[in-house]
C-alpha cells in the first residue's frame, strides 16, 4: 500500500504536471448501479453527479492529508483520492484504444506514453480525467480498492476520510511528548500495530514501521507501556528520517507503486528490514538475521538479535 512517502511523491508530481489544467473529459469503468459505497464514483448515481460537478473545473492545488490526495478545484469542490493497496496515478498523453488499434475495449486498453505502458502494473487504468491541453490523469488500480470521491471545500475536513486522522508523521509539531501521548492511547497493543493506526499518527504503514522499529532496536511485539524513555526517544527520532529517506528515494516500488511518470521509486533498494527475511542484519556489529512474523494480520520484519 502506498504510504506517506509514496503519496507525497505523487502529490509533488501532480503539482508539477496538473496545476492550472481544465478538466474536459471523464471516464471510468468502476461505476455500478446501487454499489454499496454510495459516496464514491463506484456508485453510478454518484458518478453521474460527480461528472456534472467536475467537468469544466480547473485544478488549483494538490495536497496531502495522511495517505489521502486532495485536489482542490476552482469551483468550490475538492477531489479526494486514496490509492489503497495497489493504486497509483500517472499523468501523460493517454487515449482509449479503439478497434482500429487491433485492441478490444478492455479497461486497461489505453494507449500513449508507451514507455510507461510497457510496465504491466501501469495498465490497470480505471479512472481518467483528460485536460484541455490533451494530457490525461490516469488512476491505475489493479485490485480496484482505491477511493475516488468529491466534497465541497467546507465539507472535506469533517469527511469520514479525514475527521478521525491523527497528526501527520512529518508534522513539525510532533515533538517527543506529543508522539508518546498519541502512541500511549493503545499502550497494551503491539507497537507494530499501534504505528499503523492512522487515528494516532497518520502516514506510517507496513514498510516504514518495520524500518522505524529496526533503527530504534525495538521488537514489533513490544507494547508502548513496556518502552523505556531511551527507547521512546529512539523510536521518535527514527520516524522522520525514515519517512524523509523514503521521500528522497521517490517512494517504494516493492509492489506496484509508480510515480506520475509511470516510473519506479527506489526505496525498496534501501530496506534494512522490510522483506529482508533470512538476510543478515545490516546494523553495525550485529550478527543477527532478519525474521518475519505476523502481528494482527500484518507482516513484521525485524532482527531477532538487536531488536529486543
The dominant shape is: globular
Rg over alpha carbons: 21 Å
Specify the number of helices.
7
CATH class category name of the domain at 4-158: Alpha Beta
Secondary-structure element sequence?
Answer: HEHEEEEEEHEEEHHHHEE
Q: Give, in spatial order, the strands making up the sheet with the most strands.
A: 1-8-9-5
Helix content: 10-25%
Oligomerization state: single chain
The major sheet is characterized as: 4 strands, antiparallel
User: What is the SS-derived class?
Assistant: alpha+beta
**CATH-level-4 superfamily name of the domain at 4-158:** MutM-like, N-terminal
CATH topology description of the domain at 4-158: N-terminal domain of MutM-like DNA repair proteins
Question: Based on the structure given, which CATH architecture of the domain at 4-158 is correct?
Answer: Alpha-Beta Barrel
Description:
The structure is a single chain. The chain has 7 helices and 12 strands. The chain has 308 residues and is of the alpha+beta class. It has a domain at 4-158: MutM-like, N-terminal (N-terminal domain of MutM-like DNA repair proteins, Alpha-Beta Barrel), CATH 3.20.190.10. A 4-stranded antiparallel β-sheet has the order 1-8-9-5, with helices on one face. Strands 2-3-4-10 form a 4-stranded antiparallel β-sheet, with helices on one face. Strands 6-7 form a two-stranded antiparallel ribbon. A hairpin with a 2-residue loop joins strand 2 and strand 3. Helix 6 (206-216) crosses helix 7 (229-248). The longest helix is centred in the C-terminal third of the chain and has 20 residues, at 229-248. The mean pLDDT is 93.
